[in-house]
Structure formats: C-alpha cells, structure tokens
Amino acid sequence: MRAFLFLLLFLLLSWPAHGHIGSPNVFFDGRAGPYEVRVVIRPPNAIPGPAQIDIRVSGSTAHTIRIQPSFWDASIEAAPAPIGAVATASDPHLFTTSFWLLRRGSHAVRIQIEGSSGTGELVVPLQATLLAGTSIPPGLSAALLILVLVLIFGAILVARATAQRFAPASTGRAVLVAALCLIAGISFASVRWRTMDRNFRERLLARPIPVTATIRSSSEIHRLVVTPVDQASPGQGWDTLVTDHGKLAHLFLLRESDLAAFAHLHPVRRDAQTFESVLPALPAGNYQLYAELTHENGSNDTLTGRVNVPAPIGAASQPSWDLKNDVWCQSPRAVSTNAAEPDALDADDSWHVAPPPSIGSLQTQVSPLMGGGKMVFANAGDFVVDRETALRFAVYSASGEAVPLQSYMGMLGHAVIRRDDGSVFTHLHPAGTISMAAQQIFSGAAPAANLPAFPETSEVTFPYAFPQVGDYHLWIQVRVDGRVATGVFAVRVR
Amino acid sequence: MQVAGAVGVPLALLWDFSWESTIGVDLIWSPPHLAMMGSVVIAALGAAAQLNWHPRSGEVPLGPVAAPLGAWITLWGAIAFLTATLFDQWWQASYGLAAGLWPPPQLLKAAGFLAVTSGAWLTGDARSRFPWGASAVLALISVMTIPLLYANRQHSAAFFLAACGTYPLVLVAVAKSGSGRWPATRAALGYTLLLGTMVWLLPLFPGVPLVGPIYHPRDHFLPPPFPLLLLLPAFGLDWLLRQRPAREAARSGSSAAGEAGLAFFLIFTVAHWVFASFLLSPAADHWFFAGGGRHWPFFLQIVPGAETSFWPESDSDFTGLRALLAIALAIGCSWLGLQLGRGLSVLKR
Q: Is residue B29 less than 8 Å (CB to CB) from chain A?
C-alpha cells in the first residue's frame, strides 16, 4: 500500500522538468576511464518505479559494474549503496540491472567499472519525469467491472437479508441506506479519479514548456523574442541556466509546411523570462520552434512554440530560393561569442534551406550539401521501434573524397530528430541524448576550456532508439571546412 | 481463523509501513504485501468456512447458503481487496504517487480492510472472550491515519479531530455490546498490544534503504509510532456505559452519547497533550516508546530541530472552535457507536 509514502505531504515537490519530447530513454556513448561504454537507461512511466539500465562495454573486458543513482538535491552520502549490474548470459559485454527511483527530478547515475584495464567511472544524468499514463487494458477493465458489480449487489443483498432476518419491518430502509452508501462511495471515488487525473495531466505530466515567439523587426534585421506563455507559473525561471556546449539555449526552427528550412540558433538571454536572437535569412512562413535549456540542478527543459517568420530584410541578403533544387547551408563567418547585444548572429548559428526529402518510397540515403558535397546515411534502412542502434553518417566532397569533420561546439556533430507529427523531438550528439552540461555538473568537472581534439574522421555516429513507430525527419549538422553543413534525411520506423 | 486473518491485516500494514520507510523499494511481491494478502485470504477462508446450507439462529441467509453477518462482511471485504489490488497495480504503473494520496483504488482497499476486520469483530467477538476483532479495527484506524500518530503532530487540531471522529464509534459500540465487565478496555488493550508488538519487534530486524535520497540513514527496520493511549478513554467509556447500568438505562440515547463523547474527548485530549510531550522528550528515547524524535522514514526531510518539537501546521491550530468541533464529532461518533452496539446486541441474540 504505497499510500504509506505519505512523504508527499512533506516533500518539496520537485518542479517538473521536460527534457526532449516523447523520447524519455537516455542514450550515452563515451568513456569510463579505459573502457568504451554505451549506456541505455529506460526510466519508469510512473514514480516511484524501477529504471532499467543496460551497459555495453567494449575495448577491454569488464568483470564488475556497479550503479549508484543519486538525487540532485542530496549529497552523494544520501545515495543508496551501489548495486551490481549482471552480465547477460547471451553477451558477456552487456551488463544489465534495474534501480528504483523515488523522486521526480534530476538524478546522477554513477557507473563504476572494474575489469582487465583497471577501474573506470562515469556519470550519466537522468531526468525522472512522469510520462503519459496507460489506459486500462480491456481485459482488466472487464474484470474490474464484474467485481464492482459483485460488490454492489453483494452489499445490497446482504443488507436486505440481514434486515429481513432481524428487523423485517425496516427491510426497505436497510436496502435504501446500503444503496445510498454505495452511490455516495462510487460518486466520491469517480469524482476523485477525475480530479486526480486532470491534476496529473495538467500539472504533473512531463511536457514541453509552451513559449510565445514574436518577431521584432528593425530596418536591418528581424529579431526573434521568446518568452514563456505562462509567465506566472511557479517552476524554474531562466535565471538558473548553465551553458551546454557554451550556449545557454539551443533553439531550432523548422518551417511547418514543407520542412524546407531549418535553423539552429543560440539566442541571448535578456532576463529571467526572455531570450532574443537575430534571425538569419530564412524563407517566410510558419515555423515550429523548439529550444533546449539546462538548469544548474542538471535538469533540462524543452520549449515549444510557433512563429511566423517574415521575408528577410536589410542589406545582408535578399536570397531568392529555388526550393526545388538549391541547397543553402549557412553559418556566420565572423567569430563572435555570446554577444550581449544580439545584433549579430552567434558564431555557431547555422541554417539550412533545401527541398526536404519526402517519405513514401524509400528511406533517404544521401543528402546534398551546399557546394556539391554530400552526406551519406551509412546505415539507412529499416529501423525498428525501441531497438537501440547507432545512426551513422559520412561526409564527402563534390569530388567524392571523404571530408574530415571539425568540432562543432565541442562535438563531431549535432542531430535533431523529429517525428513528423511532432510527438517526438530530440536533440542528440555522438555522446547520446544526455545534456553535457548536466554531466559536467554531476561529475564536478569544469567545462572543458579547450575543446577536445577528435581523431580525424569523416564519419559521425549517434546512439539512439526510435521511441515510436512512424515517419521521422533527421537533421544532421557537422562542421566542414569551417562552415556548418546540414544533411536532411527521412526514415520510416516500424 | 477469521479473527486471526483480521488481526494480521493491521500487523501486515504496519510491517509494510516500516518496509517502505526502511527499504523503500516497493514491489508487489514484497514480504509485507504477501503477508497482507495472506491475512486477507486467511480471514476470507475463515469466513467461508462458516457458510452452511441450513440457516441457524442468528445467521443471515443469502439464497441457499447462510452465514453469520460478520462472515458475509469479511467475504465482501476480501472481494473488495482483490478488486482494489488489481485496480491499484494499474494505477501505480500509470500515475505512481504523483497524482496524490488516497486515490480510488486505495479508498477501495481501505474499505476492504475495514470490512475484513469489522466482519471478524462481528462474528469473532461474539464467541471469544477477548475482543480481538474490535482491536484489529482500532489498529486499522491508526494505521490508516499513521502520519497523525507522530507525536510531533499530537497537539494539532487534525489529530484530535481525526481521533474524535473515529475511535469513539468502535469503543462505544464495544462497551455497549461486548461481553464481560470491561470490553472496551480489553479492545483498547488488544489495540495497544498489536501496535506495540510492531514497535518492539520491527527494530530488531536489520534493513537498509535501497533507494535514495536517504535523509535518515537506517540499519534496522523503522518502528511505527507508539500506539495511542486509547486504554484511558476506553476505561472511562466502560465505566460510564457498563459500570453504571442502572443510570444508563434511565437516560436517553442522546444524553448517553453526549456523556460518552465528552468523556472520550476530555480523557483523550488531556492524556495526549501530556503524553505527546513525553514522547518527544529524551526520556522516551527507549526501545519501549521508540520516541525522542529519533525514528524517521529514511526519505523524510525534516528541518533541524523539528524532530523533537511540535510541528506548526497551517490551518490546524487547536483552537477553541476546533475543540468544540472535536467534541461534536466525538458525541456524534458515540451516538453512532451506541446504535451500532444495540445492533450488535441484537445480532448476538
């Protein structure tokens, strides 16, 4: 009887955090000391509940793996003793276990590996959120209905028989009282169910934070201004953000009608409830807006909104797009940092205009890049829902030679995955779906001053498992020759 | 058997409370849950064993079979428990605890437990010398209001209102209908032993939290809060309702209810006002009382210093108006208890 966890009366309720949309599972590819690891964490639907964790170790052989989840608001001393993960019978490199989550909010999952190459340790951030509840299976609801009818008629029959036996004159009254009690009980329970369900869906369920996006235009530029729709809501303001890849916010714009335009921007924070960004030259239209933020407690928010983008103005550029053939992959040439006045684009902003691949016939395998190069989806094919995979992409020049990739905000690449109906949206990196900022917070490491050096490669991979069946678009961004190139792909997941 | 199962219900629930406050991982097949299911099954089997084809005196026929009313009520409770368990499994997987306390499946489960124990009270206590069934009902009420049993909350209006709105009903009914000279006192003694047993036994077993955050590290099972001093008001009610039968017979039901309710309120309030302070003092930091503000669920975050003080609760100060409300509740409950006691006496004949 979990009602005993009356802690809810006392607990500080953690604010709902909503990292990613419709894609709650955590994927991480990286290193734990000498070991190459891939970690997949599947959080529970409801809390309290068990999270499932799989750890695949490659390179060296691991013999012991221990997991220790800890809550952001409590010290490591408040974490339970580490639990062991067990190697699966079919694959000695794959370790698995489950751990219990008691509280909503940001957790650090510490993973310790011991093996032939010594000891390795890493931290994977995990958001424990409430996901959409399931509806009652028909079999269960039929069984419950039958049992409830038995309870109702049983109570009335017993009341009647008892009255007949001991006080025959008041039989009718006894039946009436029993019926009234049952009606009162059932009405109370159903009203309570409805109230609790509404409260759960409106206030507790993990979902993105809606924002209002407006365009403020001057003679030279369009400025995008983003504010929360519900400015009075209690929750976290934007004054507790930390930078992820050096940016406070990663904002994505997708043209709604045809997905022909895409932008990845880094707006500047104006105050605790306002972000602003200069808009690059995008074709006019209605755009879907997504933005990702990381708070200093390691939790992530996804913001969503819509914005009507007018045609570009000013002297900068008046491009006329031919959306049937042209590919525009743009990023600013001037190097600037997070400018206080967003009169210039951020150095790492990028945008892409091109006819999008359509789903229908086959998965797209090749996406043309500006200047004649191309990006190839190396393992395009049939994807199966919930099956963990590595999405691999390689970049080639116009002459067909493999092109070395450069660091784009400390990463070999950035991927945006969106289910075509918008029910899934996620922003991931070769390291997976985790927020690097949250990982740095939890492992106590300072953000890397110098971006890590990458081995020269023309290929980038992203660990992921598509969470739902359906059609998806993928935007894959890499830096080539000092400029950001965006490849666009369509996939069908079965 | 029916009574044994009924007594097992509050014991299993207290074990479950201690498990969740010590271990934290709460799976459907955890030992306390199995004990809970086992208790209900035993009570239901005990009740089913009383079904027969030939109605005897005092039994309630339902179609071709007859059984004492208490057996029917326990069987109803067992079906309610089964329904609630199925419903709760789905609820916990869909909403968890976030949607709030006392969701519909928990309400139904509580109704099932109340029916299982009340049925045992009706049948069992008519036959045995010790009213264990009534003790189980009293213990169940304490278990269902366990957050209020913490001494830190025993100066709040919520505590006194909850107590005055529940216990007098059972104690007065037992005092009215029970056998022997001190039935309510015995029921309260049984209650004290049931809760006390868990307070004294559970901390003997080792256990550590398997889930964080752990704000109060534990190495043994958490003792539940010390049982309420129901013995004192029960003794008073027995004296009022049984030791003065000549006068009691002369009075109307409502004036008897008034006296009983007022007596319960006065004795209980004074006793707990004093006893709660003792429980928070270092003198109660002892295996017997498990007090002194030292025993907390691992997950509870408490402001330093609040362990041994009375918690200020918004809207729950024990004002004069709320005291009057508590008296009214105690009198109303006593009146219902008298009616119930009369009904039980009829059933017994």
A: no
Q: Does the distance separating the beta carbons of A162 and B211 come in below 8 Å?
A: no
Give the strand order in the sheet containing A414-419.
Answer: A425-428, A414-419, A470-480, A483-493
Q: What is the pLDDT of residue A451?
A: 47
Distance CA(B269)–CA(B325), nearest Å, equals 13
Question: Residue B251: its pLDDT value, please?
Answer: 58
A6 has a pLDDT exceeding 60: no
pLDDT digits 0-9 by tens, A320-359: 555 555 666 766 654 444 445 556 677 788 888 877 776 5
Asked whether the beta carbons of B113 and B141 are under 8 A apart, the reply is: no
Please name the residue of chain B whose CA is at the shortest distance from the CA of residue A190: B104
Q: Do residues B160 and B318 make contact, with C-beta atoms less than 8 angstroms apart?
A: yes
What's residue A190's pLDDT?
92
Chain B residues with beta carbon closer than 8 angstroms to that of A69: 212
Backbone angles phi, psi at B107, to 5 degrees: -60, -45
- Calculate the average pLDDT of chain B: 89
How far apart, in whole angstroms, are the C-alpha atoms of residue B302 and residue A340? 43
Dmax over CA atoms of chain B, in Å, equals: 65
Is the Cβ of A190 closer than 8 Å to some Cβ of chain B? yes
The secondary element (H helix, E strand) that includes residue A71 is strand A62-71
**Number of Cβ atoms within 10 Å of the Cβ of A315:** 7
Which residues does B196 contact at the CB level (< 8 Å), separation at least 6?
B226, B227
- Give per-residue pLDDT as tens, A140-176: 999 999 999 999 999 999 999 888 888 888 889 889 9
Q: What is the pLDDT of residue A111?
A: 92
Tell me which residue of A92, A46, A91, A49 sits closest to A69, measured CA to CA: A49
**pLDDT per residue over B94-118, tens digit each?**
888 877 788 999 999 999 999 999 9
Residues 126-155, chain A: which have Cβ within 8 Å of B?
130, 133-134, 136-137, 140, 143-144, 147-148, 150-151, 154-155
Instruction: Flag whether residue B312 sits within 8 Å of chain A, measured between CB atoms.
Output: no
Neighbours of A401 (CB within 10 A): 10
Name the residue in chain B with its Cα closest to that of A104: B98
Q: Per the structure block, which two tokens stand in for B261?
A: 């309710």
pLDDT digits (tens, 9 = 90+) for A466-491: 988 988 889 999 988 888 888 888 88
Q: What is the pTM of this model?
A: 0.84
**Taking CA atoms, what residue in B is nearest to A204?**
B98
- Check CB contact of A2 with chain B, cutoff 8 Å: yes
Residue-wise pLDDT tens digits, B224-257: 999 999 999 999 998 888 877 555 555 556 788 8
**B106 at interface of A, judged by CB pairs closer than 8 A:** yes
Among B160, B123, B129, B128, which residue's Cα sits nearest to residue B145? B160
Whether B85 has a pLDDT exceeding 90, the answer reads yes
Of B21, B87, B210, the CB nearest to A144: B87
Where do runs of H (alpha helix) occur along B95-156? 104-127, 132-144
Q: Which among B20, B104, B346 has the least Cβ separation from residue A5?
A: B20
Return the residue in B39, B97, B208 with the most chain A beta carbons within 10 A, the one to mutate for interface testing: B97
The pLDDT tens digits of the residues spanning A48-93 come to 889 999 999 987 888 899 999 988 877 778 888 899 999 888 888 8
| Binary contact (B301, A10; C-beta < 8 A) | yes
Q: Chain A partners of B59 at a C-beta cutoff of 8 Å?
A: 165
- The CA-based diameter of chain A, rounded to the nearest angstrom, is 101
Tokens of B300: 């509870």
Q: Is A146 exposed, middle or buried (0-12, 13-18, 19+ CB in 10 A)?
A: exposed
Domain spans of chain B?
1-128, 147-349
**Whether B215 and A78 lie within 8 Å, measured CB to CB:** yes
Q: Chain A contact for B69, CB < 8 A?
A: yes
